[in-house]
């Protein structure tokens, strides 16, 4: 279907299947995070809900995508950067949700270091900034 998605699947040692190709193609062509529902709308019921869920879980487990939480508590997914693998996600960046268009983007802005009280240990850090994105502010 698409050479970039084939290469990416191969890099992450994933078998190329039509469902993986189609979902990965969506991530490669969108510059914002996608929810399960967003993906289902885009693929026009070509894949069932369970296949989409399993594909997202596989991509997440292999380090191909990462979770993005938004202000409504809904889960979205975005392509990982080069630092991720199946042994761990490394997303020390900010997520930005536009209050106008509703899209959530990964920004390559470092998350400030937060010193936790004694006895606390962070396993994941999420920083979401809300406002108007570059496209909507034009």
From TrEMBL:
InterPro entries: FUR (IPR002481), WH-like_DNA-bd_sf (IPR036388), WH_DNA-bd_sf (IPR036390). It holds the Pfam family FUR. Transmembrane segments: none annotated. PANTHER family: HYDROGEN PEROXIDE SENSITIVE REPRESSOR, ZINC UPTAKE REGULATION PROTEIN. This is Fur family transcriptional regulator. It comes from Ohtaekwangia kribbensis. The lineage of its organism: Bacteria, Pseudomonadati, Bacteroidota, Cytophagia, Cytophagales.
